[in-house]
Prior knowledge:
Elements: H1 2-26, E1 43-48, E2 54-56, E3 62-66, E4 72-75, E5 78-80, E6 86-92, E7 96-102, E8 105-109, E9 115-122, E10 126-129, E11 133-145, E12 160-164
Antiparallel strand pairs: 1-6, 2-5, 3-4, 3-11, 6-11, 7-10, 7-12, 8-9, 9-11
Amino acid sequence: xxxxxxxxxxxxxxxxxxxxxxxxxxxxxxxxxxxxxxxxxxxxxxxxxxxxxxxxxxxxxxxxxxxxxxxxxxxxxxxxxxxxxxxxxxxxxxxxxxxxxxxxxxxxxxxxxxxxxxxxxxxxxxxxxxxxxxxxxxxxxxxxxxxxxxxxxxxxxxxxxxxxx
Length: 165
């Protein structure tokens, strides 16, 4: 009887050892790297405002458009003087893709109480920046001029931002 108990204990110990070593054989591990890239701050500055030139309104509403390349088109209006798109210089010390955000529109108003709306048209919605260089972004627009629009000098401001993508 004692022999049977010893045999049973030996078999139990052998099974336990086999199970333990079998479980350890199944374990695996590996490593992974952790990375970070620190980018230089972006800089943007306005070098020129959006200018539609001088406009002579008619008895019907019209539109003046200035493209991002500063080409002007007058519809149902008489236009003169210089017209040009707004220009911005973007500087980065890092090479990266950026996203450009421009207000959709801006209301411009005069001291005489008149107002008009400009729909803004950026030259790009993304910029590919190269380290140590400058990029130029331009913003044109379409100005809705009312019939018999009030005379005066109209102004307004809009926001442009550039952020890493």
